[in-house]
Amino acid sequence: MSTHPRFTVATASGHGLAELAASLPLSLAPTGGAPQIAAVDGSAGWERRAGEALAAGALAAVVGPPTAHDDGGHLPDDAAGRIVVAWGFASNPGVLAAAGAAAALRGRAVLAECRVTVPDAGLVDAALLDALTACGRVFGAFGPVETLVSGPAGQHCAGHLASGAPLALALVVSAAGPAALTLRLLTEDGGLTAHVPSAATAAPAEVRIVGPDGERLLPTRWETSRRASWRRAIAIAAGGPASGDVAEFHRTAPLVPPRADGGTHT
Fold it and tell me: Its domain of life (predicted)?
């Protein structure tokens, strides 16, 4: 018999919520009534909707990948700490593993690279914010990012890490393969590479470290980003540590660069 607490979750309709609901772990039970954990779509106004769900009695909220521009304003710290953002890439446990391994490399980095591939141009805005969030988690703090080239096939951007190392980011629109994110942090004698698959697949992330002694593959976590997000929400609902996802969003969203044609991401 499971010793994990069981919570109820709302499965209302909304952008991205069908995928979130499909990944519900056994410790959650769908309900048509007042949920203990609320699922909130990430379209404009998500902070307001999440705040309303928490005010109505929810113990935690899981937000689908949010838009860069939100009209909900800033939430009180207590409410913000009970919100988990379910990023498609950045929430993958492999990104957390890569962040831990990269901590010792950041001060010696000579180049940071991020490449994200999506099959449809309509996914570019969400993927860019997702990728920047993953960059912050693995590479550490970085400054403003400038768009060098943008068009129907994607976007190429450049910036610098807090250490001064250059950051190169490529967002590619292609249906030639599944959506994926690749992060690389290079030093003079090695580095780290993390390959993160789409949340739509059960394939795990792979994180490899290369040094003078050769290459090492970090332990594989067979858990999708969606399942990891629900697991975090369950922990918060059970009284666990607060989430910093909303504060992280407000640090990252201003870094989303405008397109080279002068347009902005919505």
Answer: Bacteria
Closest CA to 199 of 49, 93, 51: 93
Considering the segment(s) 93-217 as one domain, its CATH architecture is 2-Layer Sandwich (3.30)
Give the strand pairing for 146-151 and 154-160: antiparallel
Q: What are 236's two structure tokens?
A: 């918060």
Name residue, tokens 């959650």.
28
Q: What is d(CA 91, CA 98) in angstroms, rounded to the nearest whole number? A: 12
Report the predicted TM-score, pTM, of the whole model to 2 decimal places: 0.87
Residue boundaries of the structural domains of the chain: 7-88+225-244, 93-217
